[in-house]
Amino acid sequence: MKYFLKQQRKIPSAMVWLWISLLFCCVLACRQPNPNLLSTELLTAAGSILQTQVGQSFEVVLPSLGANPRYRWVLKESESETLVRLTQEKQALSEYLNRTAPVGYAPNVIFVFETLTAGETELVFAQASISDPEQYSGIERKFTLKIKSKNTSEPG
Q1: SS3 category, 3
Q2: Using CA of residue 20, residue 23, residue 28, residue 34, what is the dihedral sign?
Q3: Strand (E) positions, the chain?
Q4: What are the pLDDT tens digits along the chain (156 aa)?
Q5: In this structure, are residues 8 and 66 in contact, taking their beta carbons and an 8 Å threshold?
Q6: Do residues 44 and 142 touch, judged by C-beta distance below 8 A?
Q7: What is the 3-state secondary structure (H, E, C) of 64-100?
Q8: Which of left, alpha, beta for 102 (phi over 0: left; psi -120 to 50: alpha)?
Q9: Is 102 helix (H, G, I), strand (E, B) or coil?
Q10: End-to-end CA distance of the chain
Q11: Contact 63, 106 (CB under 8 A)
């Protein structure tokens, strides 16, 4: 009976070590991106307050919508068109710099704006259907934009 009790005590500890070893191997097998090697543009945090001056350009970086997305980010029409002008929409750098990107990979999107006049407005981006641009997913990102006039005492 003593022998059976000793064996019974060893089994749970062996099982614990087995599970710990398995967990450790699984963690090592997961391919996690190295944050020190990530060279893509930083996302603009949702709800951010963006501040700039008249005549300057600025960017808003929105997240990727995954592989083979059915939607894309668009700037919704608003009164902001009198204060800023969308000059360019481009793709951010790939997160898969030295590796093959998954099929259908869509990187983050960068919207480049030029400020026209001083004021405050809200930029609203929505996910519009690629097949029907008038259909929205209901997901939006809003940013408050504060544009200051140029200081006349500065040269240039």
Answers
A1: helix
A2: negative
A3: 49-53, 57-62, 71-75, 84-91, 109-115, 119-129, 136-148
A4: 555 555 555 556 666 777 677 666 655 555 555 555 555 678 888 899 999 999 999 999 999 888 888 999 999 987 778 899 999 999 887 776 667 777 777 788 999 999 999 999 999 999 999 999 889 899 999 999 999 998 744 444
A5: no
A6: no
A7: CCCCCCCEEEEECCCHHHHCEEEEEEEECCCCCCCCC
A8: beta
A9: coil
A10: 94
A11: no
Residue with tokens 């005492």: 153
CA distance 59 to 48: 12
Amino acid letter, residue 80: S
Beginning with the edge strand found earlier in the chain, give each strand of the sheet holding 84-91 in spatial order. 57-62, 109-115, 84-91
